[in-house]
Amino acid sequence: MLWFQGNSMQLAKHPFQLLLRNLSASKTALPVLTLFTKDPCPLCDEAKEVLEPYKNREVDITLPENSAWYDRYKFDIPVFHLNGQFLMMHRVDVSKLEKQLQKLEQQGAGG
């Protein structure tokens, strides 16, 4: 999949990379994907690697100021919120993420 900006051309590794770029180029505010995590968490490490290009916010649930999140998610990390709403947990579901980003894009376009 190709994405063009000005005279440059870049290859998008995943379809939602193109979607995020389209969202960022539009007047729509970029969605915020929040990852709830703790250490150690091999699934969290895997999720962070997959989502590194899209990293917006990460919440370490073991910090004292995040104790409410720790109580809620201590056995379910990684957990992802998109724009403050629960999206998925345990593994990255790229299809689900892509569908939600498309919804946001359509809402931003008035559709």
From TrEMBL:
Source lineage: Eukaryota, Metazoa, Chordata, Craniata, Vertebrata
Presence of the UniProt keyword Electron transport in the record: yes
Similarity remark: Belongs to the glutaredoxin family.
Keywords from the named record: Electron transport, Transport
InterPro entries named among the record's database cross-references: Glutaredoxin-like, Glutaredoxin-like_YDR286C, Thioredoxin-like_sf
A Pfam family this chain is assigned to: Glrx-like
Protein's name in the database: Glutaredoxin-like protein
